Amino acid sequence: MLELIRQSRDDYDIVYTLWTLRDLGLAEALPDVLAHLESPNGEIRSLALRFFSEFGGVEYVPQFVAALNNDKSPDVKWTAMDALDRWGGPSEVKAVMNRLKRIVSRQRKGGGQFPVSELMYGISFLCKEAKEQEDVRKLLLSLQTSKSDKLFEHERDWLAKLMVETDGPKDSDATMSNNAIR
Known about the structure:
Elements: H1 2-7, H2 11-24, H3 30-34, H4 42-55, H5 61-70, H6 74-87, H7 93-103, H8 118-129, H9 134-144, H10 153-166, H11 174-177
């Protein structure tokens, strides 16, 4: 398997091998998987990030942030956000905030990623790492109010439940509703 991941140029072989290595739990393949972050195939880049998230750790946070900020593939961005929710820390708050603002800056199509969307992973991360920061509180409030139409139904329901559980910002926060992100 390791030879195949090192030498194959066939996308199907690489995808199959990455899934197999992941399923087998072969963390020692991490150095061999690293090269696939540069693949022209978004599915391969996404699988490589997933591998780092499962078998790597905080040392791969720079790769997750780079993928979130720079990759064009929605699947890669989703995987990067999932990984940051798992491994990210306070220094990644700005990157996550920027991505969430971009997600809700336009109307989204379809029904969203179910059961957990990229947006939900980002919100989860912010609630863990920076819930008390004013700009995070403003964003969370705007997602419940002025930007709620940009969320899919399952995201709105999840966010409402999360805000109750974490005692997050509420619609009735008068001081914040005047400053909500537009």
